[in-house]
From TrEMBL:
Residue ranges constituting the C2H2-type domain according to the UniProt record: 136-156
Region (Disordered) residue spans: 1-38
Molecular function as annotated in GO: tRNA (guanine) methyltransferase activity; tRNA binding; zinc ion binding
Domain of life according to the entry: Eukaryota
Protein name: tRNA (guanine(27)-N(2))-dimethyltransferase
Length: 702
């Protein structure tokens, strides 16, 4: 016998009756099957150990109550013939329960002499000991262990090999699966959820991300028509298909991917959604097609080239980058040819480095020093924006951040491009370092200037460095220190989400609008979506339902002096009302032994004290406010109740006289000097003692 791990043996009922000739018939069939493997038209049968139901396995044994029958999957010397009730238990317990399931079939364990056994020290026991094994339904392999068989099947699935070679069917079943999202159908492979092992990666969890990008593109499409947009990493082409299917003649969609299988999948999905395809696979063909302007609105351009190459070859109004991992390798190409007042959106999925789990990777990719903080998600968004700002500045372009979202699986940043060295300089000045106190979680951006300070700890509002031994603060960054949201753009995105029925994006957009204005949700009004004061962005007047005039500027032309002055006035007014940077987690700063108030009630308490306050999408228990941390903790302790008074209603707690004096400080007069005086007055008080007692519990927490 020849020893091999890939034996293709067909066991029939006639072989069971004539066991003496089994060895000769196996070798004959094995040689015949190897010859017939060349012909794909040859119908092949599945092995008898592969069945759909237990009843099908019992039919092979032909169970009868008055006759003894042998097991069809065991040799005579291993399991002797017996009556039906005993054989039924044998098939169920020994073969069926340890089977491996795949697409409705069960690969039962087989004890027949299909697989050669390694010779033992005693040669007489070689033929009496038969090796138990499984027959693969996809290939001709025989696997001994069940766990190895499961791994073997999973490897077939990851490679896209799911069609069985041994099941005779009239028409082979297609291995593609059709998924539907936002009235768009896409074909995907069965392994679409493993990005490193498939050419058509499709993540259903990123549906919210795709809806946000669609809303941003829809807002841009209202400003100027038609716009040329690029999905640089198409994969299945789901995002570009949604753009073309819903926005129609307002956009000219180009879907690119460097993988040939993905390009084929994109073409099939375009035909599935009744879209015409214009394919470009070479740079020369692409250069020749650039002059053709008369294209059908239902035509989608599909290109097969590197993302950096296509962004160097042609200018776009809207570019979306969604690579696997970080997108810093494509930022220079994206900002090189993007049109003035265009939009660049990028999705970063390297959350292990951005969320400070792999700090050395963040230093390598983004050039930032970070640590794990309570506001780590906003820190990740500011890291990405800083990298975008530097890439745009190298191309003499500035940015205006329209949207920054950091959720569980991704970080999404949407920016508007402002051409010219002056906007580039203004944007670059907003990249600064952050001083973070590891003891009390206080934070502040470093002051502008090149002079080295003798004691940088003086910039922090807290007094932890003076009262605690050792170094208590770290320098993080460089980070983006400007605003993360544009209220007018977010309101129009919410309008587009309502118009196109994007239900999942609407609650998040409402939260973002409140966060951009730093107000609570109860003050949010749907009627203020198109406030006239919010219609001007980057010096461009946007056409909305309340304004009948078209945009005063044509993309590609330089702005006039009057428009530049209007943009400067708008930026000055927006900077004065900019939302506070970062947020506080109410659980992180709760008082030990005290029941803190409800989050919505605590927001009202902060608002009544004269501070701006809102919730944040970065953290469900986060509070974005301009109140100093000392005042934040004072108000939190004031309205907390002791744990042992669980039945007591929520209300103010009687504080010592020194704490009451600290509360009387006006919110408008809060400054660094006032905060330090407040802390010095409270050192001997009960409240300060409780604060310092709780600080070590937050020092090493993630």
């Amino acid at each position: 016998k020849e020893k091999s791990n890939n034996l293709d043996v067909k066991v029939t009922e006639s072989e069971l009756e004539t066991e003496g000739k089994g060895t000769e018939e196996e070798s004959t069939r094995e040689s015949d099957s190897n010859i017939l493997d060349v012909s794909s038209d040859y119908p092949r049968e599945k092995h008898i150990s592969i069945q759909r139901h237990l009843a099908d396995l019992e039919k092979l044994a032909d169970l009868k109550e008055d006759e003894k029958k042998p097991c069809p999957l065991c040799p005579e010397e291993k399991f002797k013939a017996c009556y039906s009730h005993k054989l039924h238990r044998h098939l169920q317990n020994l073969h069926w329960k340890v089977s491996v399931a795949f697409e409705g079939y069960r690969m039962c364990i087989c004890h027949l002499p299909c697989r050669p056994v390694k010779p033992n020290l005693i040669g007489d026991q070689t033929f009496s000991k038969m090796g138990a094994h499984y027959h693969c339904i996809i290939c001709s392999a025989t696997i001994t262990r069940r766990t190895d068989m499961i791994g073997h099947i999973n490897r077939h699935v990851n490679k896209g090999e799911t069609e069985s070679r041994f099941i005779t069917v009239p028409a082979p079943k297609s291995s593609h699966e059709v998924l539907k999202e936002s009235a768009t159908d896409v074909q995907v492979l069965p392994n679409y959820s493993t990005p490193q092992k498939t050419d058509s990666y499709f993540n259903p969890k990123m549906k919210l991300n795709r809806q946000l990008i669609f809303c941003a593109l829809a807002v841009l499409a209202e400003e100027r028509k038609p716009i040329e947009c690029l999905d640089a990493f198409g994969a299945t082409g789901i995002m570009g298909l949604q753009w073309a299917k819903h926005l129609r003649s307002s956009v000219k969609v180009t879907i690119n991917d460097c993988n040939e299988n993905s390009v084929t999948m994109i073409q099939e999905n375009c035909h599935l959604n009744k879209m015409k395809v214009k394919l470009h696979t070479k740079e020369q063909d692409y250069d020749e097609a650039m002059g053709d302007g008369g294209e059908n609105s239902d035509t989608i351009e599909v290109t097969k080239m590197d993302a950096n190459v296509i962004m160097h070859l042609r200018s776009f109004d809207f570019i979306h980058l969604d690579p696997f991992g970080t997108s810093v390798n494509y930022l220079d190409s994206a900002f090189r040819n993007v049109r003035n007042l265009g939009i660049v959106s990028l999705t970063s999925t390297d959350i292990s480095s951005l969320y400070a789990k792999a700090q050395h990777v963040a230093l390598r990719h983004y050039g930032c020093n970070i640590v794990r903080t309570e506001y780590y998600k906003e820190l990740a968004a500011r890291i990405v924006i800083a990298a975008v700002t530097r890439a745009a500045a190298r191309c003499n372009k500035g940015i205006e951040v329209l949207l920054a979202v950091a959720l569980e699986h991704f970080v999404l940043v949407v920016v508007r491009v402002l051409r010219g060295p002056s906007p580039a300089d203004d944007s670059a000045k907003k990249i600064r370092y952050l001083i973070h106190c590891q003891w009390c979680e206080e934070r502040i951006f470093q002051k502008e200037g090149n002079m080295v300070e003798e004691n940088p700890y003086q910039q922090l509002p807290c007094d932890c460095h003076g009262s605690m031994p050792g170094k208590t603060a770290v320098v993080l960054g460089p980070l983006w220190s400007g605003a993360l949201f544009n209220t007018g753009f977010l309101r129009r995105m919410l309008f587009e989400a309502v118009q196109y029925g994007l239900d999942e994006a609407q609650p998040l957009l409402k939260t973002l609008v409140c966060e951009a204005d730093c107000t609570t949700l109860k003050h949010f009004s749907i009627h203020s979506l198109y406030d006239e004061n919010k219609q001007e962005e980057c010096g461009v007047y946007i056409k909305t339902p309340n304004t009948s005039a078209e945009s005063y500027l044509v993309h590609g032309k330089r702005k006039s002096d009057e428009v530049i002055r209007n943009a400067a006035k708008r930026q000055k007014s927006e900077n004065s009302a900019e939302h506070p940077a970062f947020y506080y987690n109410i659980h992180r700063h709760s008082i030990k032994g005290m029941n803190m108030p409800k989050l919505n009630k605590f927001l009202n308490y902060l608002s009544e004290a004269g501070y701006r306050v809102s919730r944040t999408h970065f953290d469900p228990m986060g509070v974005r406010t301009n109140a100093p941390l000392a005042q934040f903790k004072t108000i939190l302790m004031k309205y907390s109740t002791p744990t042992y008074l669980g039945g007591q209603a929520e209300g103010p707690v009687h504080l010592p006289e020194d704490v009451k004096a600290g509360e009387q400080v006006q919110a408008a007069e809060d400054s660094k000097a006032g905060d330090t005086e407040f802390l010095e007055d409270d050192k001997s008080g009960v409240a300060a003692a409780m604060f310092t007692k709780d600080y070590p519990t937050y020092c090493g927490a993630d």
